TrEMBL record:
One of its GO terms (molecular function) is GTPase activity. Residues 2-76 form the U-box domain. It comes from Adineta ricciae (Rotifer). It comes from the Eukaryota. Pfam families: Ras, U-box. This is U-box domain-containing protein. GO terms for biological process: protein ubiquitination.
């Protein structure tokens, strides 16, 4: 369930708890954010026009709408979690008779520069962690595609397939990678916690590229990899890196998940969380449901059509 833009404070881009209306410009803001703004500015946060009147009043109607929305969102999220979070992610369809079920295909792109662990993370769903005796895979050339299935029906009606796009992090495959910015419902942005340059590359290229090329709204999670190695770093380094990660995630309102492929830390949780985020986003899930039903209808029409003689 996506959040209406009018429920977000224009200054902080967070959902407003105490919305107030700035009388002169006619826009609503979070009260504390507006007070802080007015202490340092003589202009409107939205129009940038000079303010002759700095008076603001409580917007009780908007606050009521926001509270109703959050209450509905919480109930919907809790219901979905109870009914669906118990699913498992499998490498093949769990039941043969599900072939006749309408199928929702969720597309995830695992994005980031080279050597951050994209391929290992994508394949970890098969094992839960990366086996110690398995060699590290070479850098991806082009894009690897992996397919999984969920063990539980969505809304007791729809089978759910999961396609993982694992495009190369090398600059020379940029034209190929662009396709997977456009065609995804969820994006996992990976940064190597032992390599600050990987976070810089996310900030400067990968995240802006998604915003530039994505056609549909995309759910995003910032994935900090190699947690087991990060824990061996000096405390000063760990503190500085975590601060930078938090700043990036806060700026773009992105949740953070720390993972270790070798220990299996948070691997399953990461993918389940992304799937749930997509299923709670009406702008993403509704078209997928419509498409799945349409495919079933088309197959039915083909079966009932008379053969040409």
């Amino acid at each position: 369930m996506s959040i209406p833009d009018e429920y977000l404070c224009p200054i902080t881009r967070d959902v407003m708890k105490n919305p107030v209306l700035l009388i002169e410009d006619g826009y609503s803001y979070e009260e504390n954010a507006l007070k802080s703004w007015l202490e340092n500015h003589n202009t409107s946060p939205m129009t940038n026009n000079f303010l002759k009147n700095r008076t603001f009043i409580s917007n009780r109607a908007l606050k009521s709408l926001i509270n109703d929305f959050l209450s509905h969102k919480r109930i919907t999220s809790e219901k979905l979690s109870r009914e669906f979070l118990s699913f498992k992610i499998l490498t093949r369809r769990p039941y043969v008779d599900w072939k006749s079920k309408p199928t929702i295909t969720i597309i995830l792109s695992v994005l980031g520069p080279c050597q951050v662990g994209k391929t290992i993370l994508s394949q970890c769903l098969q094992y839960g962690h990366w086996p110690a005796n398995m060699p590290i895979p070479p850098s991806t050339i082009g894009c690897d595609l992996l397919f999984y299935h969920l063990s539980k029906l969505f809304k007791e009606q729809f089978a759910v397939a999961l396609r993982l796009n694992d495009p190369s992090g090398q600059d020379r495959f940029e034209s190929v990678t662009n396709l997977y910015f456009r065609q995804c419902h969820g994006a996992l942005f990976l940064t190597d916690m032992t390599n600050p340059e990987s976070l810089e590359r996310l900030e400067q290229y990968w995240y802006p590229r998604l915003k530039q090329l994505s056609i549909n709204p995309v759910e995003v999670i910032l994935v900090c990899t190699k947690l087991d190695l990060f824990e061996k770093q000096e405390p000063v380094y760990r503190e500085a890196y975590l601060r930078r990660v938090e700043q990036f995630a806060t700026k773009h309102q992105i949740p953070i998940v720390h993972v270790s492929a070798y220990r299996g830390d948070n691997i399953e949780y990461l993918f389940k969380r992304m799937i749930i985020q997509i299923m709670e986003n009406d702008e993403l899930i509704d078209p997928l449901v419509t498409q799945a039903l349409s495919c079933v209808k088309q197959k039915s029409v083909k079966k009932t059509s008379p053969c040409c003689l």
